[in-house]
Amino acid sequence: MSKDLKEFWTQVLQLLEPATDLVSFEVWLQSLEPLEIVDGKLVLISPTDMGVKVIQQRFLKNLETAAARVNPAVKEVRLVAAGDLTEYLRSHILPEPESQPEEEPVSAFDEPSMFQPKYTFDNFVVGKSNQFVEAAARAVADNPGTTYNPLFIYGGSGLGKTHLMHAIGNHLREHRPELKLCYITSERFVNELVDAIKEGNVKTGKDTTRQFRNKYRNVDVLMIDDIQFIENKPSTQEEFFHTFNDLYQSNKQIIVSSDRAPKYLSDLQDRLRSRFQWGLIADIQPPELETRLAILKKKAENEKFNVDERVYELIASQSVTNIREMEGLLSRITFYASLTGRQQVTYEDACEALKDYVDSQKESLTVDRIIDVVCEYYKVTKEELCGKKKNKEIVDPRQVSMYIITDLMPSVPLAAIGQIFGGRDHTTVMHARDKISEQVKNGTGNSVAVSDIKDRLTAGQKA
Question: Is 0.85 topped by the overall pTM?
Answer without folding.
Answer: no
